[in-house]
Amino acid sequence: MTGPKPGLQTSFRGGNVHDVIVVGAGLAGLTAAKCLIDAGLDVVVFEADQRPGGRLKTDRVDGFLLDHGFQVYLTGYQIAAEVLDLGSLKLKSFQPGAMVRVRNAWHTVKDPLRSPWSRMLPDAIRTLQAPVASWQDLWTLYRYRQSLMRLSVEEILRPRGTCTLERLRQVGFSERIIDRFFRPFLGGIFLDSSLDIDSARMEYVFREMGLSTAALPAGGIQAIPEMLCSSWKPGVLRLNATVGQITDEGVKLSDGTQILGNQVVVSTEASGAKRLLGDRLPISEKLSWNATTCLYFAIDQSTAPSREPILWLNGNLGDQTAQERSGSDGFSINHVAFPSLVQSTYAPDGQVLASVNINGWIQMDSEALVSKVLIELEHWFGWTVSSWRHLRTYGVPCAFINPSESMWPAQTRGVLQCDQRIVACGDYMHTSSIEGAIQSGLLAAQKCLLTLREGDHP
Q: What sign for the dihedral angle of Cα 151, 157, 159, 162?
C-alpha cells in the first residue's frame, strides 16, 4: 500500500513522440489517461509521488487500513459509476443519519424516510426526542431536498455569492439544527464548521447525499485510483517523476529529461497546475485550502463504543466561539467514525478502527496532540478510551480547496483548454469531489481526442 505497485516504472528516458502526456496521476489524470488509452492512443503519465491517486491514499499499518484523512465514496455518483467497476470495489455503506453529542449526552438523528419500513416510526420518534431538530426542521429538510432533486447539477452549481450558513437560514432551518447538526456534518465534509463555504457547493453535496449513501471500498480509498490504472502496460505510469516545465515539444522533467508529446494534459492539484501554466490558468497565486487532522486508534472489539456503522458528530461546536474553534490549541473533535464497522477489511479480527477527525491542520507535538484528543474522547465515550492504541496521525493541510478561489463559468467548468496543445483538468475546476475529478478527466480526454482528430483531418 505504501509503495509503487509491481510493474510500474519509476523513471523514463526515451525519444518517441507520445500522442498525449498526462502530468499528474490523481483521479482526473488517471481518468483522462484511461479514456485516451481505451481510444487506442499512446499515453504516458508522470506522477511526482511514489504512488498514484493524489489525495486518495491508504496505508496498511498493523493490519489496519488507514486512509489519509476520512474520505468516503457517495454511491449516487453517476459519472463515476460509468467509469469505475463498482462491483470489484465491494463498497459497503454507513447508515444514513448520525449520533449527535449535545452537551454530555448522545442522541440519534436519522431521516425516517431513508430508514427501513420497520424502523421509520421508531427513528422518527427518537429523532424528534433529540434536542437537535424540530418537526418544522424535518419538514423543511424534506422540502429543501425535494427542491434540489428537481434541479440539474449545472443549475445547483451556479454561484450565488451566499455562504452556507446564510443559505440554511434563508431556507428556514432553526439555529438549533444548524448548530447541532449542520455545523459538524457539513463541517466534516468541507472541513470548516463555520459554514462559510459557498452555498452552491453545499447544495450540490446536499443533493448527492440525498441520492446516496457514504461508502468505503474493501481495499481502502486508494483502491479507487488503483482500479483506473490496474490494467495498464508497464511504462505507461511513471512514478517518482516530476515535470518541471511544459515545452513546445512536450514536457521537461526535473532531471532535465525531455519527453515529446503532441498533447499535454495538466492534471496536478491546483497549485502545481498554476506553477506549470502561469497566467494560462486563471486562478489566484495564493490558493485557499481547508485542512484536516485525522487520528487513528485501534480498539479491542469488546470495548468499542458502538457496533453500528454510523457517524458520531460533535453537536456542541455551535456553543464555542469562533476564537475557540480556530485557536491553535483550542480545537475540538468534529466527528468520529469507525470504518471497520462499515468495512471489516479496515481492521484485523477482534479489533475496531476509530477515525477521529478535527477540522484544520493541528501543528503541535504528536504526543501532546494524542493526549489532548484522548481526554476529549474520554468525555465522549467513557473510561474505556484509556485502552485505545494510537496508530497514526495524518495532517492534511491541502485537503479541500476553497471554492471561492475556483468557481468556473458553466461553459468551462471541469476543464480548461489553455491552447491548442495543452488542456488542464482537476477536481478544483468542478466540485472538489471524486465525481468532479472523474468528470473533469473525461472532459479533458474529449478535448484531446477532438484536437487530435482535427489534426488528422485539416
A: positive
**CA–CA distance, 50 with 10 (Å, rounded to integer):** 8
Q: Is 141 helix (H, G, I), strand (E, B) or coil?
A: helix
- Strands of the sheet containing 311-314, edge to edge, are 105-109, 98-102, 311-314, 335-337, 351-359, 289-300, 389-401
Partner residues linked to 98 by β-bridges: 109, 311
Q: Quote the CA–CA distance of 384 and 370 in Å, as a whole number.
A: 16
Largest CA-CA distance found in the chain, in angstroms, rounded: 74
According to DSSP, the residues that pair with 106 across neighbouring strands are 101
- The gap between the terminal CA atoms of the chain, to the nearest Å, is 47
Q: How far apart are CA 73 and CA 217, in angstroms?
A: 8
Residue 393: exposure state from Cβ atoms within 10 A (0-12, 13-18, ≥19): middle
Characterise 408 by phi-psi region: left (phi > 0), alpha (psi -120 to 50), beta (else).
beta
∠ CA 12-17-22, nearest 5°, is 65
Distance CA 384, CA 373 (A): 14
**Positive/negative CA dihedral, 229, 6, 242, 392:** positive
Helices within 294-384 (DSSP H only): 322-326, 339-342, 366-381
The C-alpha cell of 131 is what? 434536542
pTM for this entry: 0.91
pLDDT the model gives residue 2: 42
- C-alpha cell recorded at residue 8: 510500474
Q: What is the pLDDT of residues 130-167, one digit of tens each?
A: 999 999 998 999 999 999 999 988 888 887 789 999 99
Q: Is 266 exposed, middle or buried (0-12, 13-18, 19+ CB in 10 A)?
A: buried
- For residue 297, the 8-state DSSP code is E
Dihedral sign for Cα atoms in the order 48, 54, 55, 59:
negative
Q: Which of 226, 218, 216 is nearest to 355 (CA)?
A: 216
Q: 164-208, pLDDT tens digit by residue?
A: 999 999 999 999 999 999 999 999 999 999 999 889 889 999 898
More confidently predicted of 106 and 432: 106
The conformation of residue 59, written as its DSSP 8-state character, comes to: E
